[in-house]
């Protein structure tokens, strides 16, 4: 099979596929080719059934721990209510997981839908219209403006043919196509001028081509293959929850084993051995139930879901819940240029006339010949909704005229086009002959160097005079200056003639022209993008621009955005240079590069992988088909909601509804808030559980009365739900975007959370045990050992519950003081604490105390309980103060 079709002659390709440009394939050849090559359609991943997806959810380590806890709670401890709650949480997480995974298949499905429905083909000497899936290699396809290219073609005819390939290559300007052979052996996709690729759009002219690749072998098919084969990376959230589950399991098993062994041997002889073994086993199970924050996965899910709602208000649509938290950990944002950092709309920026440059905002007179030439030598159209249709370069010229308050439609009617010399890629010019009262106005636009060869005069301040060599040099200098700014420059010239041409050609129309000016255009940066990049930089996030555009354009836009400083050493890397980099070299030097130009989809994936190999969390933004594989490879893929293709949206974790780069910065801020709030919830839940475990552990070790399983479960039910969820609603902390990214190695225990869990859990246990001891010496039943012990246990039970509610306030800030105006700004938190405190205290009601086996406490006993609770706040505040002082030193 031939390779690099752009490098082959048409005759060689005809011979390869046994076809003829004049007649095409016969019916028998088509059947034979379809048998050999298959359908011209895209294949998707092997379907996974919903049942398989559902079972896969139970492989998660934390879920396994929760299921074991449910089984032990139900069958051993006979606590069926707790077992049911745990299983509901497990099932809910499994259902959510299945739903999210099913949506990830949308990327391939969207690629399939992009296939054009019909194609015009020459078969057996006749032109027929067929569904594009029926195309086979060797078919002769006819193209004209408005068509979607149905397969990869080696062009055989290109008459002023232009194809817009931004969805595939990332280049915003339509590409001039030609049929001549390209002699270079290795040519980038965007430079293969004699090829037309599936799913790109013909914007101008007409052409013909031989189908060289169909289906999964096309360039867009290769992207589909990459999408099928890309392994989705675990999010930091998933890694952290897995780590949390393993840590919990080891801790729980060790503590339960110690409690069982120590309790059994210290109490041996006080009761029959078998009964003692069962009793201590039940105590160990109760400890396990107390230690496992069974509501944690649900609480994390709820916090993430609440985060998605807030982000939706800021125009960020989250498709996968973990993406919310991943954003907050982002180190690198790899952004496509076209349509993401720029507007994906060619815009006039400079006009050169009267020997000087003028900004596009400066007013031009309606009779300015440069402006007239832009409008008349132009094939753009206005549809019924006044939307401009045509080549992006030409529509930019018309839009410029409209911005100049020119009545374009009226101008075109007065100067009606009568003749033309169409654009040709060899001479790079186009001309129109228009009515001009009793004369005819010839408007010519095109490449400045080609235009100047045909110019003999120049218009200066309304006067026409012969052009001098100094003036030619000044025009060339202006052209070079604009080109260095990455502007696409067109030359403008005109003349008037007394009669129409018998046969208009370049030899008679495009001669003896009067130079009118130059016009410089660019796909400009989004106005808000520069500030967003600067804010991301202040948050320690590096922005990397990746584009299919030319090197000079990429560098100019990067400098305008602040990604590159002017004249700095950091160079722009091209796709051809990347091909010469080994993966190891790229991984080692990737921090040195901020801009990549003329890259392919494979390059984008390599760049993302190189950053990931350095332990960085990478976000990738994009809107084209070519971005889909890198969007899936990245830790978080960000698609564009307006300009984005369905393919890029389907491969994304998050979609920007307004295509605004600045929205990413707000989304990062919200992601950091979500992580911070999950950390607060974990700090709260885990320190409380450590306190519970320590309390039961020490009571067992000291031979004291032990809190009953029903009491532990009630505390968990009251304190582990509403307060923890309310912590997830905490507002963004001040200065959160001044912190450096936490990095891939960080987890929920980083930043002092682990040490806080330990010391706060121990403090909680000490306060509860102290309350128990005080309960043995204060109250109405002193002297009555049985009732006094029951009072003490009741005080310990209420202290353990209420102290956790006080501690929820502590958990709002890991290191900062709670004595701030913002501490109680969260009304949902205030309400949650109030409700939980009322419910916790309700166990003292007459109809409740028998169920929980508690006594009614007097005022002094209640005062001891409340002082212990407040003591939690006071002591933690003192520790935080010392931590801040030591931290400064």
Report what the structure shows.
- The structure is a single chain.
- This protein has 889 residues and is α+β, with helices and mostly antiparallel strands.
- Helices cover 49% and strands 17% of the residues.
- The chain contains 34 helices and 26 strands.
- The strands form 4 sheets. Strands 10, 11, 14, 15, 16, 17, 18, 19 and 20 form a 9-stranded mixed beta sheet that branches. An 8-stranded mixed beta sheet has the order 8-26-25-24-9-21-23-22, sandwiched between helices.
- Strand 1 and strand 2 (126-131) form a beta hairpin.
- Helix 3 (50-56) crosses helix 5, helix 10 packs parallel to helix 28 and helix 27 packs parallel to helix 30.
- The longest helix has 42 residues, at 661-702.
- The relative contact order is 0.09.
- The model is unreliable at 103-108 and 110-116 (pLDDT under 50).
Task: Explain briefly what this protein structure is.
This protein has 889 residues and is α+β, with helices and mostly antiparallel strands.
Structural class: alpha+beta
Largest sheet: 9 strands, mixed
Helix content: 40-55%
- Note the gap between the termini: 71 Å
Number of strands: 26
Mean pLDDT: 84
Shape: elongated
Radius of gyration: 36 Å
Treating each run of at least 4 consecutive H or I residues as one helix, how many helices?
34
Q: Report the portion of residues in β strands.
A: 15-25%
Oligomer: single chain
Low-confidence stretches: 103-108, 110-116
């Amino acid at each position: 099979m031939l390779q690099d079709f752009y490098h082959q002659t048409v005759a060689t390709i005809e011979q390869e596929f046994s076809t003829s440009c004049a007649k095409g394939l016969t019916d028998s050849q088509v059947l034979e080719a379809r048998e050999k090559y298959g359908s011209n359609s895209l294949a998707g991943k092997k379907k996974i059934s919903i049942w398989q997806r559902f079972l896969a959810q139970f492989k998660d380590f934390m879920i396994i721990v929760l299921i074991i806890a449910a089984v032990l709670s139900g069958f051993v401890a006979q606590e069926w209510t707790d077992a049911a709650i745990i299983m509901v949480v497990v099932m809910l997480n499994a259902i959510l997981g299945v739903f999210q995974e099913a949506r990830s298949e949308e990327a391939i499905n969207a690629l399939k839908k992009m296939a054009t429905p019909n194609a015009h083909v020459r078969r057996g000497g006749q032109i027929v219209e067929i569904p594009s899936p029926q195309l086979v290699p060797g078919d002769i396809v006819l193209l004209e403006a408005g068509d979607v290219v149905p397969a990869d073609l080696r062009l055989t005819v290109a008459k002023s043919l232009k194809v817009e390939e931004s969805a595939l290559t990332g280049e915003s300007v339509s590409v001039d196509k030609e049929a001549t052979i390209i002699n270079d052996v290795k040519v980038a996709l965007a430079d293969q001028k004699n090829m037309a690729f599936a799913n790109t759009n013909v914007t101008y002219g007409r052409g013909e081509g031989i189908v060289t690749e169909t289906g999964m072998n096309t360039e867009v098919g290769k992207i589909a293959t990459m999408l099928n084969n890309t392994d989705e990376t675990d999010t930091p959230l998933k890694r952290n929850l897995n780590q949390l589950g393993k840590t919990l399991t080891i801790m729980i098993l060790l503590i339960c084993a110690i409690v069982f062994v120590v309790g059994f041997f210290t109490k041996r002889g006080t009761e029959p051995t078998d009964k003692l073994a069962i009793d201590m086993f039940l105590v160990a199970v109760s400890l396990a139930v107390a230690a496992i924050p069974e509501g944690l996965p649900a609480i994390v899910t709820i916090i993430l879901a609440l985060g998605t709602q807030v982000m939706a208000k800021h125009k960020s649509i989250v498709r996968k819940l973990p993406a919310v938290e991943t954003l907050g950990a982002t180190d690198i944002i790899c952004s496509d240029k076209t349509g993401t950092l720029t507007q994906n709309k060619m815009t006039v920026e400079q006009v050169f006339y009267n020997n000087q440059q003028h900004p596009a905002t400066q007013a031009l007179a309606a009779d300015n010949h440069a402006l007239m030439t832009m409008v008349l030598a132009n094939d753009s159209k206005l549809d019924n909704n006044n939307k401009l249709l045509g080549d992006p370069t030409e529509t930019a010229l018309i839009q410029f005229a409209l911005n100049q308050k020119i009545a374009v439609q009226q101008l075109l009617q007065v100067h009606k086009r009568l003749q033309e010399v169409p654009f040709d890629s060899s001479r790079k010019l186009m001309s129109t002959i228009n009515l001009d009262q009793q004369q005819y106005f010839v408007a010519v636009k095109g490449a400045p160097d080609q235009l100047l060869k045909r110019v003999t005069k120049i218009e200066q301040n309304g006067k026409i005079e012969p052009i001098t060599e100094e003036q030619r040099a000044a025009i060339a200098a202006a052209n070079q200056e604009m080109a260095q700014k990455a502007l696409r420059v067109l030359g403008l010239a005109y003349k008037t003639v007394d009669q129409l041409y018998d046969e208009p050609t370049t030899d008679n129309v495009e001669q003896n022209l009067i130079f009118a000016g130059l016009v410089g255009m660019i796909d400009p940066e989004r106005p808000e993008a520069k500030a967003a990049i600067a804010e991301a930089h202040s948050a320690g996030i590096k922005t990397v621009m990746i584009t299919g555009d030319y090197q000079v354009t990429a560098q100019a836009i990067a400098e305008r955005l602040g990604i590159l400083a002017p004249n700095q050493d950091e160079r722009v890397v091209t796709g051809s240079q990347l091909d010469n980099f080994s993966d190891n070299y790229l991984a080692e030097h990737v921090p040195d590069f901020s801009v990549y130009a003329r890259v392919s989809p494979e390059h984008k994936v390599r760049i993302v992988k190189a950053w990931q190999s350095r332990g960085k969390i990478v976000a990738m933004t994009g809107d084209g088909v070519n971005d889909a594989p890198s969007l899936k490879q990245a830790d978080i893929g960000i698609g564009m909601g307006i300009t984005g293709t369905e393919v890029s949206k389907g491969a994304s974790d998050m979609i920007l509804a307004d295509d605004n780069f600045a929205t990413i910065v707000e989304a990062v801020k919200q992601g950091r808030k979500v992580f911070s709030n999950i950390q607060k919830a974990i700090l709260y839940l885990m320190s409380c559980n450590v306190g519970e475990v320590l309390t039961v552990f020490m009571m067992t070790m000291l031979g004291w009365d032990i809190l009953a399983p029903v009491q532990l479960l009630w505390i968990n039910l009251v304190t582990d739900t509403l307060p923890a969820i309310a912590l997830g609603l905490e507002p963004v902390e001040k200065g959160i975007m001044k912190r450096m990214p936490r990095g891939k190695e960080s987890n929920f225990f980083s930043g002092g959370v682990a040490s806080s869990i330990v010391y706060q859990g121990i403090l909680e246990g000490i306060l509860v045990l102290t309350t128990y001891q005080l309960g043995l010496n204060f109250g109405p039943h002193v002297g009555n050992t049985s009732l006094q012990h029951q009072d003490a246990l009741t005080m310990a039970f209420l202290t353990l519950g209420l102290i956790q509610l006080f501690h929820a306030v502590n958990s709002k800030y890991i290191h900062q003081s709670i004595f701030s105006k913002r501490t109680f700004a969260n009304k949902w938190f205030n309400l949650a604490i109030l409700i939980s405190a009322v419910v916790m205290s309700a166990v003292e009601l007459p109809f409740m105390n028998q169920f929980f086996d508690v006594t009614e406490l007097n005022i002094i006993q209640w005062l001891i309980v409340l002082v212990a609770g407040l003591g939690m706040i006071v002591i933690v505040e003192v520790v935080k103060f010392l931590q801040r002082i030591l931290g400064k030193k």
